[in-house]
Design brief:
Length: 194
């Protein structure tokens, strides 16, 4: 069945997520104001700059309604900066930077990999090998008991899930491989309906 998948479109790489959603037969819906949250089956938070997104979430009035929706079970998928926004705690964030505390992970900004700026690598995931693009990626420094690790690189978690929240430190939307979005819709979004 066709799902309405919201994509936080305040800043960052939201357009590439939208094309995957269309390719998978669902409807992307850009989210810029609280009104755009109505009728969504799920929400995606893209990569970009998490401190800027945090400011825009506050100024647009979206922070509180999104937090309430996630607590209420809205399936939510964050990639890179989106993962930082969903974390319980941010290390090396801007002092005024907020996060949703939606998944029990601590993330350190701009800290993953030996080449901090950008690198590509194969990741082991529950869906098999996945090509990961890391751009000033957050490192997951701690994972709470309720968090499932679904993907690792060099033994470190890079794809994690806790109930309705999925988060990746890389950019699955930049490689032309929609399996992770498919997993999100088939496993996280559909589970919610059962
Ligand atoms: N370093 C960015 C941040 O802190 C995230 C980078 C990305 O999304 N590619 O928000």
């Amino acid at each position: 069945m066709n799902k309405q998948i919201g994509i936080l479109a305040l800043q960052g790489a939201f357009a590439s997520h939208a094309s995957y959603i269309t390719e998978l037969g669902h409807s992307p819906q850009e989210v810029r104001t609280p009104r755009d949250l109505g009728g969504l089956d799920a929400l995606i938070m893209p990569g970009g700059e998490s401190s800027t997104m945090s400011q825009l979430l506050e100024s647009s009035g979206l922070f509180e309604p999104i937090q309430a929706a996630i607590v209420g079970g809205l399936p939510t998928f964050g990639t890179c900066a989106g993962m930082i926004l969903l974390a319980r705690e941010i290390v090396d964030g801007r002092l005024d930077q907020c996060c949703f505390d939606a998944i029990d992970i601590t993330v350190r900004r701009n800290a993953f990999g030996r080449q901090i700026d950008s690198f590509e690598a194969d990741i082991d995931t529950v869906m098999g090998d996945f090509h990961g693009v890391f751009i000033r990626a957050p490192r997951i420094e701690s994972v709470g008991e309720k968090v499932e690790v679904l993907g690792t690189y060099g033994g470190e978690p890079v794809l994690v899930r806790q109930a309705n929240v999925l988060a990746a430190s890389f950019h699955p939307e930049l490689t032309g491989d929609a399996r992770l979005h498919e997993y999100f819709i088939n496993s996280v979004v559909t589970t919610k309906e059962k």
